[in-house]
Amino acid sequence: MTVRRDFEEPARCRPDLVIGREEPFTAAREQLDRGGSVLLHGPAGIGKSTVLRALAAEYGATARTVLRCSATESESHLPFLALADLLGLVLEDVSDQLPATQRTALESALTGRGESTLQRDGLALRLAVLSALRALAAAGPVLVVADDLQWLDPASAELLGFAARRLGDTPVQLLCAMRAEDQEYDRQLRSAPPDTLALRLGPLSRTQVSALLDHRGYTGLPRSTVRDIHRTSGGNPLFALELGRALAENPTPPRPGEPLPVPTSLRALVLNRLEMLSDEARHTLLVASAGARPTLALLHAAGRPHAEAETARAAELGLLATEPEGPAVRFAHPLISAALYAEAPAHRRRAAHAALSEAASDPIERARHLALATNGTDPEVATRLAGAAALARDRGAPSMAASLGLLAARHTPPGGVPAPDERRLQAAEDAITAGEVDLARDIAREVLSRATVPADRVRAWMVVIEAAGQALGDVDAVFPQALADAGDDPRLLALVHYQLAWRALVVEGDFAEGREEAAHAAELAARGGDRRTELLALAFQAQAETLMGHPGAPATIRRALQEPQDPQVACHHNGAGSTRLRWLLMSDQLSDARATVTRLLSEARRRGMVESEVHFLRMLAETELRAGHCGRALDLSQESLRLARDSGIGEVASAVLTSVAEASGGDVGRALALAREAAEHAEEDGDQIYMSRALASLGYVQLVAGDAVGTVRSLRRVRELEQGLGVTDPARGRWHGDLAEALVRVGELAEAQDLIDVTREQALRLSRESVLAVLDRAEALVRAARGDQEGAIACLTSVQDRLAKLGYGLEEARAAFALARLRAHAQAPGPVRGGGVARSGTASYDEAARLFRRCRALPWLRQVEAAASPPPAREPVPVPAPATAALDGLASMERQVAALVMEGATNREIAARLFISVKTVEATLTRVYRKLGIRSRVDIVRLAAGPRTG
Fold first, then answer.
1. Residue pLDDT, tens place only, 255-276
2. pLDDT tens string 491-535
3. How far is C-alpha 74 from the chain's CA centre?
4. HTH luxR-type domain location, by residue (predicted)?
5. Between helices 907-914 and 892-903, what is the axis angle to 10°?
6. What's the start-to-end Cα distance of the chain, in Å?
7. Neighbour tally for 251: CB within 10 Å
8. Alpha helix (H) ranges present in 904-934?
9. DSSP letters spanning 881-911
10. Does pTM top 0.70 for this prediction?
């Protein structure tokens, strides 16, 4: 098929067409933009055709001629078929330009009216294809699009390869795709130009599979189900979509422990070789598919005496992996195992599980197989399952514990002890721990639909509230119902009031009310003998008091750390250990903080506590960032964000921290996007706590990006929010120095000094040494802007030394940078530059560059490099006395901007020299015009010229 069109601007491909393929898509674009060719390869269903179509649509718009073919296996034996698809419709256009011998051979091959063969007319045919492509390219660029290259008939492949290797600079590009495993694409490269870029498409991540399912309309799937789809599909997008479709069409979801339903289309795709196995071999593979970690020894123990020979035959057929795996039996693709299990009759599945319940060595596995081999209720099976769930919980596998707990509830007879609902609620709490909040919410809702026991109902309400995460406003109606169900039971009331403490903080933004609710919850829990809730409530109270600057915070922390401790609370993200960690960070004890958070993270991982793992990864990243280890902090924050998005827990908090880490050691553009995303989500959730944190991170990123006006806007709002929340400890957000610096840059020196004075008083009261040092750095900038260069330099020298002793590497480097700017200014003639100084080629920025390089603070390092590179020399224009007098009524920043306008500097040059944004320059000039009673920068220049004479 041929497409002709005039040259036009290509339509860039929509991102939703290449979900999870951004890197190979970008690489393909770059190759095509250079005039090269691309070969996409990978296994069936991996998305090659999707990417191929997207690229063809984009680059076909710039080609004069587009030639297409899409081969099939059933037609691959027909000679010249692919060549006919490519050139059949353009033969008339080019035949007159071919020598007679070539024309005859090509027409015979394409039309089938002659007896042309490669053996008889080989050279003529080869030259004819090359000549045809050159003739088409003479009229404009040619794009050859070939899908399923592996099914190209050998004759067409040979001819296309001959021409491709000889095209040279002829504007003909090939865009091809082929099915291949590993490096099997090498043979097909012979059909493409020598410089063809081969790109392998690999499996999608779990997050990408989730996005793909959402895009195709399979929304609302629980995260645990998405996890199973990803595991079963192996990240293959076609398989994932088919599994998603089967789930959407199946009104009955799979029961706990059961694999996903595999649609017939996929069964046929992966099991077409199963018929070549004997019945006994198929049953052996069924037993392997039912096992969690099948081995030859396990299959023997499960009554499969010929397992070696049967699995060897299955490997020959491509059903099992062929590479050496020791004793393990591994399917070539997870979907083969799932399809094999789904294909088997129910009684054969039960028989496989019954055999494995005796053969498995692990008690958890034995209990799971026993449950899946048993129909109906059975108290003995239920008891074994509940014990296995407890063991899984102890091993740090809460997701497995939740699955086993639901199986235990299903096998528990009505009236059993414990009751089925009690076991379901334990499973829901395990699901919360594992980060499977959708599953937990569904279990709790099911229990609430029939439960009458107050303890069960309150426990279920707590799961619903926990599953809401930061969006507590969405479950506001739950609290009155939970209080009503709790009655006057202190244990139940303690649970509700503990959650009310969080509601006060998250929804109302009231630390004082949250502290009171937490204290009340701790008192109720102590009265009811619920030590776990008491410890959590005390930890919350201590955290609130810490952030409020309350004098009772240390005493409350000691109470929360007193014995007896609950092991689960000890490493919980809302436990006393986490509160103490926050206190260590705010008190500048970075070494102790690092040791504490490392221990807490290790324990949370050991116990499988996903939300706590996300939290402590974030806290470790924050600790490393304070210490100036920006690269390490960026890696940790990104890991936290990936896990948060995967589990749906703590996404806003992780995005906030990652934005700061990106701005410090990564990409400022990504940092801005993350900070804005976090602010939007916090606003949607009505979460004032994380709204203030998100805006604080946005303000910092804007400062790094050079947008001082944006920084002021964002951080002024943070100040308002924290005042409303009752936060008085400046070590909580550490945004005060950034706001003061930005205020200096925009010329608001009085506001900057006032902020510094108020914050310094709070920091002195709480002994926040690093905050005091940063405030002194900001005050040095105020002094410099007011003309006290010597005082500013002396102050910054001291600040840099203090920050180095405290271990704040990044802040130390920022102080060195500010000091280098001031020293550069001291060496350069010209007006005072507030908040920064003129760049001077004679000034040394080496120390600041060294410190930023040590921190791997790349965005800051780029600022140093820019500052150290002097702008083109400009002859200074002396400012006459009348002009100087006219500028006396202006603020410091306004005077500096006006003076540079008098020198003839453009707005962009002024922004560069004063380290402010162009928008700030424009806004400052507007104020100058108004104050001087003039209309334009021309009038400022006239001031510089002085009054006219004669």
1. 665 677 788 777 777 777 778 8
2. 999 999 999 999 988 888 788 899 999 999 999 999 999 999 999
3. 43
4. 883-948
5. 130
6. 82
7. 5
8. 907-914, 918-932
9. HHHHHHHTTS-HHHHHHHHHHHHT--HHHHH
10. no
